[in-house]
Amino acid sequence: MKRNIFIATALLFAFGLTSFAQDNISPERKQAIDSLALEKVRDLSKYISLIGDKETPFSEANRVIDRAVELFMDGSEVGVSSLYDPEINYYPVREYLERLMRLNYSKVDIEWYKIEYVSDLEKQPDGTYVGVITIFQKFSGYDKEGELVYQDVTKKDITVYVKRKETQIAGRLIGFWDVLLGDIRVKETKKEK
Questions:
Q1: Which of these, 60, 142, 154, 180, is most buried using a 10 Å CB contact count?
Q2: Which residue range forms the structural domain that includes residue 141?
Q3: C-alpha separations of 13 from 18, 26, 58, 138, 147 in Å
């Protein structure tokens, strides 16, 4: 369903363009792209919550991992931090999600909030636009008795890439803007207040 919405949105972008050579983003198009980028981040938030939920069946969690990986550029990494270790570890997206699924808690709650752009889209020499979305992640881990054993809040920056692509529809070459997520960098981890 989400994939169909994404394809429909991409096609709307495509038919709204007059020429593939056009590579500047109009204010209206930028607003639509910003909305799509934020929607992808919200989708990722839902996927992470499902993957981390111990009640999600293994086959469903693996299907959701595949969907989540599709949101990212190849080679993207996700940062992991802890209150107990000052070192931040980075993992390829799929490995991060598989590790999340195997966390040693009886129950895990992961909530993302305050999802917003912190840097506007900036055009790169290759024509790609890059921006940063900041999120706050509240992580809670529980033991078998349902007691909270670990909780933190992490501020993370998600790099967003907007690239021109083309596809063929009914024999016509159509250009459109595609949004992909990049690295997720840990900025700060602290105790929940």
A1: 154
A2: 2-190
A3: 10, 12, 36, 34, 48
